[in-house]
Amino acid sequence: MNELTPQEALQAIADGKKLEYKFNKEKDWRIFRPLDNGVTIGDVLVRRFIFRLAQEMITVGDVSFPKPESEPLEVGTVYWVTAPTHQYYSSITTFIWGNGRDDKRYLQRGFVHLTRDAAIQHAKALVKLSGGSIDAE
């Protein structure tokens, strides 16, 4: 997911969009709640935090997973494929969007994600929704 510039982050906050944030050197993203976080406009402007639009989620019953990409990616974009039958729940190797037949097939089937973690969450959700166990070896 794309990081927002300070101006884009402030506009998104003003527009009431859901955001995620992290400190510059952290790995994990957190849900941004303006009233709870104590983040000031100054913090945003000096890039104390990195912001991005929050990932959209799909919820079926009590199972949620990140929404897969629905539009063709820019050529050269790295992506992962949901793989519920694979030992690690996602493609081990990354794919690079080339607008080819396989790229389009994965996209049409709703399996294209921009992060490995999102692909894994999606695959585990499919296993759960099918009545399977994500702990099975």
The gist of it:
By secondary structure, this protein is of the alpha+beta class. The chain is built from five helices and nine strands; from the N terminus they run E-H-E-E-H-H-E-E-E-E-E-H-E-H.
Q: Which terms summarize this structure?
A:
alpha+beta; 3-stranded antiparallel β-sheet; 137 residues
Describe this structure as you would to a colleague:
The chain has five helices and nine strands. The chain is globular, with a radius of gyration of 17 Å. The chain has 137 residues and is α+β, with helices and mostly antiparallel strands. It folds into two domains: 52 residues, no CATH class; 71 residues, no CATH class. The model has no long low-confidence stretch (mean pLDDT 86). Strand 2 and strand 3 form a beta hairpin.
Q: Total number of helical segments? A: 5
Give, in order, the helices and strands. EHEEHHEEEEEHEH
Multimerization status: single chain
Lateral arrangement of strands in the main beta sheet: 1-4-2-3
Q: Kindly report the average pLDDT value.
A: 86
Q: Which structural class should the secondary elements be placed in?
A: alpha+beta
Percent in helix:
25-40%
Number of domains: 2
Percent of residues in beta strands: 15-25%
**Straight-line distance between termini:** 31 Å
* Poorly predicted segments: none
The total strand number stands at: 9
Radius of gyration: 17 Å
What is the 3D form?
A: globular
Question: What characterizes the major β-sheet?
Answer: 4 strands, antiparallel
